[in-house]
Amino acid sequence: MTSSSASPLSSAWLAAMPILFVALWSTGFIGAKFGLPYAEPFTFLFVRFVLTLALLVPLVQLLGGGWPRGARLWGHIAVSGLLVHGAYLGGVFYGIYQGMPAGLASLLVGLQPLLTAVLAGPLLDERLAPRQWLGLALGLAGITLVLGGKLDPGDGLFQGFGIGALASVVVALVGISLGTLYQKRHCVGMPLLSGTVVQYLGAGVVLGLGALLFEERHIDWTPTFALTLGWLVLVLSIAAILLLMALIKRGEASRVASLFYLVPPVTALEAWILFDERLPLPALAGMAIAIAGVVLVVKGRAPDSETPDARRT
């Protein structure tokens, strides 16, 4: 192939990489919906982390880049992993396991930039710009519309799920927000690939303990579960991280961060097609308003705070 024919192809691939990355990320919620009928959430995640680590450790050795330096940094990275993988994924999977729609779970945790911006003030001494305050107000108004559209006037608090599912996803939202700030403050210089290994180790130990204490640890190894687990391990936890590394290396990280707000509507569309999950019109309007709020908050942040990390796997 000549250089003239390779150049347009290369340019098209570079343009598609951020969109592909976000599209892959959105399927994490769909994978949870597919796999949770066959395994309890903490057991599901523990097996996923074990398989992911079995593949990531050789990749670190193969691709190089080194390991985090010093026991102190290892400890900080493990704590960040407990928050951004353990609390986040554990809360999302448990909420979906308890009946929360995948699209709604995606939207709720997609408010992470809003909560992170609020917490960054007292924790990192960062001030919000007026546009960010407007984004926060829009986000709160939007999520109020979404949850109001899911209220069940009958027995349950919400249609199809209860307060436990909502609380677990709120834990996920708080966990990923605190974890993002903790990582920014204490994990400077963390190698992405080997740092992710340490994060998975920290989160996996806690999730394994949760499975041991609170679950029966039974897995129904159906073809659907095996394929779902393979997708989450190979595509999300491995391929998506390698894609993220390539984007960061090429200076496309901020572009990926700006596209993260597309994950909730993409997830909602996938959930509607695959599971017939439907949101009423007020909830759809609320989703659009909430996403607009997230966009305002993200666009008002400093460029260095827009760099995505490997937290949403």
Mean pLDDT, all residues = 82
- What string gives the helices and strands in order? HHHHHHHHHHHH
Largest sheet: none
Strand content: under 5%
Shape: globular
Total count of helical runs of at least 4 residues: 12
DSSP helix fraction: over 70%
Radius of gyration: 19 Å
Q: How many E strands?
A: 0
- As residue ranges, the low-confidence spans are 1-5, 303-308
| Backbone structural class | mainly alpha
Gap between N and C termini, in Å? 36 Å
What attributes characterize this protein structure?
313 residues; mainly alpha; 0% strand; globular; disordered N terminus; DMT family transporter
How would you portray this structure in words?
Belongs to the EamA transporter family. This is DMT family transporter. Keywords: Membrane, Transmembrane, Transmembrane helix. Helices cover 76% and strands 0% of the residues. It is mainly alpha-helical and 313 residues long. 46% of the residues are buried.
How would you summarize this macromolecular structure in one to three sentences?
Belongs to the EamA transporter family. With 313 residues, this protein is mainly α.
List the helices and strands and how they pair.
Blueprint: H1 3-35, H2 41-63, H3 71-97, H4 102-109, H5 112-124, H6 130-149, H7 163-186, H8 192-214, H9 223-249, H10 253-259, H11 263-275, H12 281-299
Helix pairs in contact: 1-4, 1-9, 1-10, 1-11, 2-8, 2-9, 3-4, 3-7, 3-8, 4-11, 5-7, 5-12, 6-12
